[in-house]
Amino acid sequence: MSETTPRLNCALIVHLNQETANDKRSVQEGIHLLANIAHQCELPISWALLPTLANSYKKELTNYCTEFNDDIVLALDTNHLEKVDLNRADQIVTSRNKLFTHISKEKDRLQKIFPDGHLHTASTTGTINHILVEALESTGFYALAGYHAGGKDIGCPFDFFYPSEERHNFANQPQRSVVGIPTTDCLVEMVLEGRCHEYLDRHLYNLNFGHQLNANSSLVFTADITRVANCVGSQLDLLTEFLARLSQKEIINIQPLGHLVNDFRTTNPTITPPTCFLDQSRLFYYDDNCHLIFDSSQTEPVEIYNYISPPIGSLDGKETEIPPIIDFKSSRSRLELRMSIEIESAKNMPFGFAIWGDHIGLKLMETDALSVTWIDRQLLLVRVDLCYGQNKFYIRLTI
């Protein structure tokens, strides 16, 4: 395989936290069952552990890390962060100090139990805010897994990114050095509901688009270990079949989560790279200024999450008013295609538009847009910044 061939980076993370603490027998069964299936497929597992539970699983997890390249991740219970009022400075300061002390102690405890591991990644199934990200950065962590772009962290990027200093779900400057990692729904549920293969197929289909934007896509699966323990017969067959498929795909790069983090930080040491995802008639795009969603029925975005100048009081940066395209003109000659677009905006803001259609065979000759990206035979993705008032942009393509 060529070094430039795009690959889908995958990891599998399992949480051994307070939610699983009351059913130790099922947890042990699930650990052995999942490890047996995954390791037979040569797939490493990232085990997210609360230090208070780590000794219960020390023997087998140490062996897995040694023999099968698994890794250890610090699991954090962050549900208490829901009660922190981020509009009150006193609560922010108190929470920051407590988190720093707590995470430092938890890291030391887990590191003593697994001294051979490099503990630089944390994970949570609970609340995330910018105070948590700051505390992780201050205690030497490189990444935090557990973001949910379509749920509790709405507006955040759907792939690896560097969170903003002030908004955990934004990717703008100035940023933290901790990598934010969105994770999937429980893999077992996805398998049993018949969603996993289609979900994987969509990510594989999108590989070339991400590569055009100089970013390799990532997919971090989570697995509920007690749910694994309850699988029997044909359910286990379905899970085994999917994990085997992951191991047989040449363009899938299965690694421990910590390795994927190191690769991302090496490739993108200072900035969140532009990334897109085409899902049937919708295109999702983000960079370090915004997150845009397009539908094939129109040129302008249907949703804009503004990272650099969000609406006042907005937690997710979603714009309530989408600047309209007031004029779109195109002219074609034998050798070139010219387009001009006029947009009216009520403020300075990041923006983009999608010119749907097959433009393969044409190349960019001239534009005043920030970027123009070919997304297969589906569309041209044009990224611009708007100023207050009327904005005009042009694009010239030639054969």
Any overview of this molecule?
The chain is an alpha/beta fold and 399 residues long. It folds into 2 domains: 8-275, Alpha-Beta Barrel (TIM Barrel); 280-398, Immunoglobulin-like, CATH 2.60.40. It contains 11 helices and 19 strands. The protein has helices spanning 24-40, 51-54, 58-68, 89-113, 130-138, 187-192, 196-205, 207-212, 225-229, 234-248, 257-267; strands at residues 8-16, 46-49, 71-76, 121-124, 143-147, 179-182, 218-223, 252-254, 275-279, 282-286, 290-295, 303-306, 325-332, 336-345, 349-356, 363-367, 371-375, 379-386, 389-398. Strands 1, 2, 3, 4, 5, 6, 7 and 8 form an 8-stranded parallel β-sheet that branches. Helix 4 (89-113) crosses helix 5.
List how many beta strands DSSP finds. 19
**What's the number of helices?**
11
What is the CATH first-level class name of the largest domain? Alpha Beta
Overall radius of gyration = 23 Å
Structural class: alpha/beta
Mean pLDDT: 92
**What fold name stands as the CATH topology of the largest domain?**
TIM Barrel
Helix and strand succession? EHEHHEHEHEEHHHEHHEHEEEEEEEEEEE
**Envelope shape:** globular
The N- and C-terminal alpha carbons lie at a distance of 30 Å
Topology:
Elements: E1 8-16, H1 24-40, E2 46-49, H2 51-54, H3 58-68, E3 71-76, H4 89-113, E4 121-124, H5 130-138, E5 143-147, E6 179-182, H6 187-192, H7 196-205, H8 207-212, E7 218-223, H9 225-229, H10 234-248, E8 252-254, H11 257-267, E9 275-279, E10 282-286, E11 290-295, E12 303-306, E13 325-332, E14 336-345, E15 349-356, E16 363-367, E17 371-375, E18 379-386, E19 389-398
Parallel strand pairs: 1-2, 1-7, 1-8, 2-3, 3-4, 4-5, 5-6
Antiparallel strand pairs: 9-10, 10-11, 11-12, 13-14, 14-19, 15-18, 16-19, 17-18
Helix pairs in contact: 4-5
